[in-house]
Amino acid sequence: MFLQKFNNISFKKISSYAATPTFLKYYSLNFGPQHPSAHGVLRLVLDLFGEVVTRADPHIGLLHRGTEKLIEFKTISQNLPYLDRLDYVSIIAQEHCYSLAIERLVDVNIPERARYIRVLFLEITRILNHLISLTTHAIDVGALTPFLWAFEEREKLIELYERVSGARIHANYVRPGGVSQDIPTGMLESIYQFAQQFAARVDEIEDILSGNRIWKERLQGIGIVTPQKAVNWGFSGVIVRGSGLFWDLRKTNSYEIYDKIDFQIPYGLSGDCFDRYLVRIQEMRESLKIIYSCINNIPVGEVKSSDDKFVTPSRHAIKDNMEALIHHFKQVSENKNLPIRELYIAVEAPKGEFGLYISSNGGNYIEKIKIRAPGFYHLQGLKCIAPLHLLADVVTIIGTQDIVFGEVDR
């Protein structure tokens, strides 16, 4: 009787081994927190009937560092490294959202060249994220080769990070008022050379996965998210677009210079794991279009705002202007008084809608900050996605959710 409650897909999958359901029993299984396919310190309590999941209960808290509370006791510039360490696969996307929020809070405009540089490295960050998301998911399913290929490409992009910021991972590059420094000589040529050869690497990854019979059987029809379910559970990013919804904040709520760039928003049809895989593949190709556009149209000029009261001035400004030196000292030692204001800023991070709610009461520090991490909403969605799937399918579903626990647990 229990087996008759399953949908057609699940019934087909379990009927082969469940010919004698009398011998199946209910039991609970701890998935993690050290399980390599949990993509972080996740403890997932699964209620099973044989190998079929009847309930999934995610448990978090093992990585909790109180990031939001720490930010409320630090200066504006001291907070940036905390944002870098939330989603440590999409570093610049996190610090970019914080910088946008501070600029809106204190009404600072940034130069046009800085906007182009930001978008350029935001799309480099999107490629970095999708490369590791797709290929670690492939490892979960059993394919090792794409992982090795992708990390060779990631190394080229990490070198670009290092050239522009001095750091391979935690860049601390995008800052309120612009970026920390201009791109070095020859950087645009290096980015162009990478983009020229990267499209072929994406084709190679697709050649080994998209038509692979095992890959398709493991992903197609698994973890289906309907458009209504995506909206009800607060999903965003690839999961929403994989369900067929045209929703990307770069288009629907454009920021920086995205409204000046011609690119497409890929979306799926059935909302299963295979659609989410295809959307990420296509998004990397669209990121290349954005990168080409930025290289071709980037203007000359300054990369920082001239407002020294809230923006870290350049070395030359400090050297030539005593007032700038005083503002810099005050900013580093303690914030200038912030205006009384509250706001919410959201960006289309590689994993989905990353947002910050910031409230200021006119004092030196941010009174309240709340981080909206896309991975938190996607993780809780396991409760509605995982039931009626096999235990092995849970690994596939987690892989396509693209979860990083720095932002989930924060």
Explain this structure.
By secondary structure, the protein is α+β, with helices and mostly antiparallel strands. The chain has 2 domains: 3-59, no CATH class; 67-306 and 334-409, Cytochrome-c3 Hydrogenase, chain B (Orthogonal Bundle), CATH 1.10.645. Helices cover 50% and strands 12% of the residues. It has 18 helices and 8 strands. The protein has helices at residues 8-15, 67-71, 76-84, 91-106, 112-141, 145-165, 187-209, 213-219, 227-232, 238-242, 249-252, 273-297, 315-320, 322-333, 374-380, 382-385, 391-401, 405-409, and strands at 26-31, 43-49, 52-59, 174-175, 178-179, 340-349, 352-361, 368-372. The strands form 3 sheets. Strands 1-2-3 form a 3-stranded antiparallel β-sheet. It has a 3-stranded antiparallel β-sheet with strand order 6-7-8. A two-stranded antiparallel sheet has the order 4-5. Strand 6 and strand 7 form a beta hairpin. Helix 4 runs antiparallel to helix 5. The longest helix has 30 residues, at 112-141. The radius of gyration is 23 Å and the shape is globular. Residues 1-20 have low confidence and may be disordered.
